[in-house]
């Protein structure tokens, strides 16, 4: 039984063909496309309002040089948000529970912000490795610590997203299994467990949204240091 709980995180395949590519493509198909009409449906209006508010809040602290990343970060946010939400549906696969995928997203974006900082303002970028007013004996130690913390950033991005979604899916499956087992023996307890499962599902919907936002928000903070 313990091994079955982790089967949901295995990449599905059909006739030996991995279906993770289909899982990564499906969110783009579900997003509503802009229309040249003046009057649009409510879903498209809500989607446009959400994207505009997200872009405004994310790039308001950045100088105009960082606004070039608006389309890329907004697309990444919608992509992660769609993957996380679709993964909460029954009999679906959540690609963002795979550490390899999250690291594949975190490392290139983090590396791009570092390269931009080293290219545009190398003095300021290297100055982040040594806080101002550091005593002379502590300079080598602090440089090593700040360098390690710099390289830990993409690892923290990928592990945070993976751990939060994996823990949520495991909790949902554990409580659902408990409710199913308790139903014939203790119906009252099973009903209370089902209510707890419903509340946990609502919490996981919020976690799916928040984790996608936090992932992109931290990338924007890294970008803010280097532009």
Short description:
This protein has 227 residues and is mostly helical. Helices cover 70% and strands 2% of the residues. A two-stranded antiparallel sheet has the order 1-2.
Can you give keywords for this protein?
227 residues, globular, mitochondrion, transmembrane helix, 7 helices, proton-transporting ATP synthase activity, rotational mechanism, 70% helix, single chain, two-stranded antiparallel ribbon, mainly alpha, 2 strands
Count of helices?
7
Distance between the termini: 51 Å
- Percent range of helical residues: 55-70%
Averaged pLDDT: 83
- Molecular shape: globular
Number of domains: 1
Content-based structural category: mainly alpha
Low-confidence stretches: none
**Strand arrangement, largest sheet?**
1-2
Major beta sheet, specifics? 2 strands, antiparallel
What pattern of helices and strands is seen along the backbone?
Answer: EEHHHHHHH
Task: Write down how many β-strands occur, each being a DSSP E stretch of 2 or more residues.
Answer: 2
- In terms of DSSP E residues, the strand content is under 5%
Describe the structure.
With 227 residues, this protein is mainly alpha-helical. It has one domain. The protein has helices spanning 20-30, 42-59, 70-86, 99-120, 122-127, 139-182, 187-226; strands spanning 13-14, 17-18. A hairpin with a 2-residue loop joins strand 1 (13-14) and strand 2. The longest helix has 44 residues, at 139-182. The mean pLDDT is 83.
Helix/strand layout:
Elements: E1 13-14, E2 17-18, H1 20-30, H2 42-59, H3 70-86, H4 99-120, H5 122-127, H6 139-182, H7 187-226
Antiparallel strand pairs: 1-2
Helix pairs in contact: 1-3, 2-3, 3-7, 4-6, 4-7, 6-7
């Amino acid at each position: 039984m313990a091994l079955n709980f982790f089967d949901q995180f295995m990449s599905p395949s059909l006739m030996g063909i991995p279906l993770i590519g289909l899982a990564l493509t499906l969110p783009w198909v579900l997003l509503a496309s802009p229309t040249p009409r003046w009057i649009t449906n409510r879903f498209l209006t809500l989607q446009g309002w959400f994207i505009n508010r997200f872009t405004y809040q994310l790039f308001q602290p950045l100088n105009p040089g960082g606004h070039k990343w608006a389309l890329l970060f907004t697309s990444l946010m919608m992509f992660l948000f769609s993957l996380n939400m679709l993964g909460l549906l029954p009999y679906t696969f959540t690609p963002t529970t795979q550490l390899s995928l999250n690291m594949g997203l975190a490392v290139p974006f983090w590396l791009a912000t570092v390269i931009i900082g080293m290219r545009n303002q190398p003095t300021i970028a290297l100055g982040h490795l040594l806080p101002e007013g550091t005593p002379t004996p502590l300079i080598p130690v602090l440089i090593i610590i700040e360098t390690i913390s710099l390289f830990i950033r993409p690892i923290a991005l990928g592990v945070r997203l993976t751990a939060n979604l994996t823990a949520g899916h495991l909790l949902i499956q554990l409580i659902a299994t408990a409710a199913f087992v308790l139903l014939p023996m203790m119906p009252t307890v099973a009903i209370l467990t089902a209510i707890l499962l419903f509340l946990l599902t609502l919490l996981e919907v919020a976690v799916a949204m928040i984790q996608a936002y936090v992932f992109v928000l931290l990338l924007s903070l890294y970008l803010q240091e280097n532009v």
